[in-house]
Structures are given as C-alpha cells and as structure tokens.
Amino acid sequence: MSETNKSIRLNKLAKEFNVSIDRVLSFLQNKGVKDIKPSSKINQDLYMELLGEFQPDLKAKLAADLASKEREEKREAQRKIEEQRLKDKEEAYQAKIAKEKLIQKEKEGQEKKEKPKDRLDSNKENSSNIIKAEAKKLVGPKITGKTIDLDKIESKRSPVASSNSKDESLKKKRKRITNKINTNKFSKNKKSNKKNNVVEIDPEEAQKRVRETLAKLQGGGKKSSVKNRREKRLAHREIADQELEEKTLEKKVVKIAEFATANEIATMMDVSVNEVISSLMSLGYMVTLNQRLDAETLQIIVEDFGFEVEFVGADVQESISIEESQDSSEDLLERSPIVTIMGHVDHGKTSLLDFIREENVIAGEAGGITQHIGAYEVTLPNEKKISFLDTPGHEAFTAMRARGAQVTDIVVVVVAADDQVMPQTKEAISHAQAAEVPIIFAINKVDKETSDPDKIKAQLAELNILVEDWGGKIQSQDISAKIGTGVSELLEKILLEAELLELKANPKRNAVGSVIEASLDKGKGYVTTILVQKGTLRVGDYMLAGSYSGKVKALLNERGVSINEAGPSTPATLLGLNGAPTAGDQFHVIDSEQEAKKIANRRMQLQREQGVRTQKHITLDEIGRRIALGEFQELNVIVKGDVDGSIEALSDSLEELSTDAIKIKIIQKAVGQISESDIMLASASDAIVIGFQVRPSLQARKLADVEQIDVRLYSVIYKAIEEMKLAMEGMLSPDFEEKIIANIEVREVFKISKVGTIAGCMVLDGKINRNSGVRIIRDGVVVYTGKLSSLKRFKDDVKEVQKGFECGLSVENYNDVKVGDVVEGYEEVEVKKTL
Question: Across-strand partners of 526?
Fold first, then answer.
C-alpha cells in the first residue's frame, strides 16, 4: 500500500495479501467490525491489523519505515528550531547596531546645532589651559687651535680601482645602470591613501529608485492606450488559463444517469468495456455488456478508474415516493419461495420443470433449448405454492441467468450425471453466490447407465462446494426429470430451505417487483411478464416500469387464464404498458396516472441524453487506425425479436464477434415484427436486418425486395451467431497463397535474334500453364522471378504442358537462361480468411 493513510477496498486488499476474501471478512468480524462487504473501504488502523495478521514481515518493515520517518521529521524540526534561534540572534544583533548608529546620528546633529559664540568661548578656555615647552638656547662652534694632518687621513683610504691597473683586484669594474621608471609618478596610477567614504542610502529612497527603474523597463512613459491593451491581454490570458483548468477538471467527472449500462460507462471513461467488466467481476458483480448497473455499483467502478461520478436526474429516482419504509410486523404474511432453475444447456432444467408442471414446454421451444425466462407457479399436494423461473443455459444468455439470480430466493442448479460440471454451470453457481442466495444441486439423468453422480460431487468439491453427502452444508438430490425419480424429495428440500429463510411480505401495500420479459403481440399490444415481490398488483393500478408507464388493463397467469390480482411471489403477464421495458427493470405501482407519466417521460428524456453522450463520433486516431489496417469493414445490424431478453442476448453475442478488422454495430434493437421503418433505416445505413422468432410484414417484405435489403430470420440463437460469423469471414479480403504447380529442367538453350533466348526443357513433375508465374533457380538459389512470354511444343503455341513432355519456353524480360537451370512454375491461390 503506497499511501498508508489512504482508505482501500477489501477485495483489493485480499489480492495484495494473496488470501481469500472470506478469511479477511471472518478476521474483521472476529475483531467486532460490523456491516462489512468485499467492496467496503477500511481505514489505516484496520489495515495495520490485517497486515499484522496476514503479512507480519511487511508490517514490521512498514513500522521501521514509519519510525525512521518520525526520526527524520524530529531532526528536521530540531534543525528548524536551531535555524530560527540563530535568525533571532542575528536580528537582535542587527537591531542593536541600528540603535547605536541612531544614537551616534543624534549626537552629531546636536553638535552641528551649537552656536559659533559658544565655540569661540570654548576655544579661549582651551587656550588658557595650554602648557608651553621650555628648552636651552644653542651656542656656536668651539675653537681649540689645533691643525689637522690630511696625509694621515688619506693613507687609511683603500686603493682606487682603475681599468689600466695590472692587478686584477684593482681593476675598475663596469657598472650597468638601468633607469627604472617609477610608475607611481603618474597621477592616474597614484593610489590615494584616503579611505572611501561609505554613503548610506535611506530605505525609502531605495524603494523610490527601484520603482522608477521598473517603470522605465515596463514602458511607463508610453501612452495610456498601450497600457490598457497590455492589461486586456493579461486579463484574457488569465480567463483562458482558468477555462483550461475547468475543462481538465470536467474531464475527470463522469456525468451519468442511474441504471446506465457497462458499455455506456466504458465509453464515457474512454476505457475498454472488458476492463470494466473484469473490474466488476473482481468486486463480485457478474455483469454483461448491456446490463444496467445501480448507483452504488456505478460509483464503485468509476472511482476504481480514477474518475468522479455525477448522477444526472437523480431527482427522478427521489421523486418516486416509493414507501421504502419498513413494513410493520403485523402486516407481514408468509409468502411462497421464488426458485430459479439454472444449469448448462441440455442438462434437463426445462424437463424437470415439465415434470413438476406436468406439461411439455420444450416442444414449444425452437431447437429444443430454452430461449426465454419462463415464470411459473406450482401448487403442491400439501397446498403450498412455489414460483419457478426457468433460465436458458446457452452461453449467450448470461444476462438472463444473472437476472434470474437477482430476483430469486433459492437457486436450483441442475447438473447432468452423465456429463460434468460445465462452464455455464460454474457461471450459474457464481451468479447465485454473488446474489448471496442458497443453492440446491439437482443431479439429473441418474436413470442413465453412464451416469456417475459421485463424479459430479467430486468436481463440485474441487470448486470448494461440498454437498451434504460429502460432509458439507449445501443440499443436493439425485433425480431423473424423465421418470420423476427424486423430484418430490427435491421439492421437500426447497420448502425446507424456504422455511429456514422465513420469507414474508406485506400484501396490503402498493406492488413492487421485477420485469421478467417484455414482448409485442399483434392483437394484445405490449405484453409484460412480471414477478411481484411486495404488495398486491390489481387490474386498474397505475404502473411505472423503467421509462414506460400505463394502466393495468388485464392480468393473466402463466397458463393464459385471466386473474384479478397478483400477490407477493406471483408471476403474471400484464397488458397496458405503453412500451416494452427492459428485462430486469423494477416496476412500481404509483397512486396517480399523471405522476407515473411524468416520471416515465423524464426517464425517457434522460435515456435519450445518455444515448447522445455515449455516442462515439469518429476521431482522427480512429481514421488513422483504419488506414493502418487497410480495408476496415463495419457491419451495421438491426435486431428485432419477440422478447426483450432474447434481443439483449443476441445483441451481446453479435457485438462480441467484432474484431480489429470488422466491427459489428447494432444500430437498433426492439421487440415486435420487422416493419417498413426498419427496412428504410437499413436502407439508409447499409444495414442487414436480423429477425429472431419474428417475421416481416407483407409491406416490409416487398420494400426489402425493392431496396435489396438482406433480411435474415432465425429461431435458434446459435445459428444466428454462426451465420453472422460466416458472413463476417466473407467480408474479409482473402489471403493469397503460393502453390508450386511444376518443376522444369532446362536441357538446351537457343539464342534467336529479335526473339531472345529460348530454353528447351523437360517437365519433371506437375503441369506448366501459359499464364503461370515462373522462377529461375540456379544451384538452389532464385535468380529471377517473372512470367512466361511464350510456351511452345514443337512449333505450336500451347496453353499447358504435362509431366514427361518436352517444351520450349521464353521468360519475359530475361535472356540469361543456362543449361541445368530449374524453372519453377507457381500460381497464387485465394485462401479464405477466418476470424
């Protein structure tokens, strides 16, 4: 942890310590920390405690670093105190000197003010006090009367040196006289002995001179208009700098509406959607490309990428005065459990539900695989009810499985005993664990001879999931959905789990629940499958679901029978909404129709604004990337389907097929049949139309023929994905591969004027064509690559020569063919490029 004083999320901490998040959470719970989640942030004290538990060496190192840092800070503080003390001492000394100078100045001033009279009087007084020196008078020379003999004095002198003298010692020595110039004579170089007088400048005078100098430098003498222009320039520069700073700050703020998708948030932060999804998965959230995220999740993910989040239209969420107040315990009544059946494709989820419901659902599903979430209510012999949700197992339906886990109380994971724990099974388990929902394993197909339930339990144990038979806490039941073995025991275990959960709800309040599916029916209009979680939904209620609202005109159960109301844990189909809400949206019953419409319109407006904000226009970088790639292709697709969940699954799967060379762009996706407006949109944007379990209207079909729009209709999702992949491969420019078709030996060379060199050859293998490319190979080295200018057999021009036949050939623009050369014939063959 680089910044020890900064809070950090627990899941990141678990990665840092290389331990499971469960160990970290259990340690914190033992320490008495409450309401802690994997995405929670912890403070410095808790971090140090965790460090001591899981990485004591690192804690010791951190403590040592901290101690050394404290010592360093102490030394620094001591040094600063010492510096301050010296500074104070210096200031005191300077103040003392300044004071002495001031006193001296005052004294000098007083002396100058004294009068001349006083000075004269003082001089007289001084002269009277002078002491005069006394000395004896000097007398003249003294006369003795004696004579001085000069000869005696001269004899004592030393002999005079002469140049003519024979004695070397008496010879006169020459003396070299150098006239040195005394530079001090010149007045310029004379050094004055006088000391320089130090001139003291008053601080005010110094400041005045500095101001004058600055004014001169800044052109103070210029006209006032020049000054005004300069001031304006400076003001503009300041404003521009401020705007730039604000823009930089704005870039770090992500403005987003609540319930935005992972794709939208990735576009706004300009990061890859895969990074966003992987980051969310590390936080324990299993999401898909177009899955809508709530405010808390959005805040966590945006902060993780170093941005700030600002929710636009938060007032809309607050304006729904949904009474989330706690229901009183007297109003709470027992409700039936909501059970989701999950598992891998073809492991028998729908067959199990068929046996429980005693009705064949699979026969009605295309390709024998479930492609919608089915919501059913089953009444058991003991009059107890269970609501079942059947989710698809195909890999494209990840969002549907996640949605199923979010609204459920118990998850039943079906695993085929004759198969193994498959990827979709693992994904279903992770969805259930992320939603913190109890799991019951139903090991199906035990009636088959190849079944091995113990192998499945062993594989689950490898995933750290122990069933009760293996000493764990998770319930499991061996069943056969085909003949009904163990199904009643499975239902008992579901009811037992429900009793432990103590599921209760208030049926007297306004209904709140989740949208399971939404579709457009030609006769009925928009049909929405919902699951009531709280309260009771009645015919005539005003309802809000996502960005759509309406009055409940009719309620139907899963068998199509009309009902008047739907209580808690009841799945139902309703008519009356003005659009198809997104599967997974919450619905609320609002007291007034006006309020419901107002909120729905505001949400629709926010959704449009969000669409505009997340719309990515082509940039210069993108153009550069496309040019670098060469032939960049973009495939526009319009997806129409019968229900919203299937459209979402198909759109996600198609977008995942995008590569660097080909990008699939979903320009529109909606429920309902293919209409003329869809064909016109496809015509304008060069798109293809994919219909999933829907058909075009007669007018749309005719218009598609006129406009030559490709309309593809599918009933099974993996066929749609497979065909789209093949279509994309067809859009790729093919690769060219060289194929060696013949080897020819040169046995004779003929040089013909005006024609060039003709090689007499024998075809050793393969077949040489007139249009083939050729290479001249000499001693294993390619010396020339080119084309044939002529190919003859005897005197006739031929198109090809087979193996074992002789021929004459000449190579275009090449005459240096020699005996013994090998001519290699080749062709470029197109090879289909794959994604």
Answer: 520
